[in-house]
Design goal:
three-stranded antiparallel beta sheet, Quinone Oxidoreductase, Chain A, domain 1, 8% helix, binds zinc ion, mainly beta
């Protein structure tokens, strides 16, 4: 899968990365759109207080549920459109 990877401060590239292996309670989202906010800019500039590199950037996304790994019922299903913001 492709990802926007900040390999070092100020060095953003799009590259192939391994598809994540889901753990219980996680879902894989195929990203359709990702926003860029002020936090992303501070990460890019190396000024974010907790960010480290390398890191896949973008934490405000709209996408489609591609896989679900959960031993409990969840409120969404494969192919649902979702939006999320996380830090
Ligand atoms: Zn943000």
């Amino acid at each position: 899968m492709k990802a926007a990877m900040l390999e070092n401060w100020g060095q953003l590239i799009v590259k192939e990365i391994p598809k994540p292996e889901l753990q219980n309670g996680e879902a894989l989202i195929k990203v359709l759109y990702a926003g860029v906010c002020g936090s992303d800019v501070t990460v890019y500039d190396g000024k974010h207080p907790t960010a480290t590199v390398p890191v896949v950037v973008g934490h405000e996304i709209i996408g489609i549920v591609e896989e679900i790994c959960s031993d409990k019922p969840v409120d969404f299903k494969i192919n649902d459109r979702v939006k999320l913001s996380y830090s």
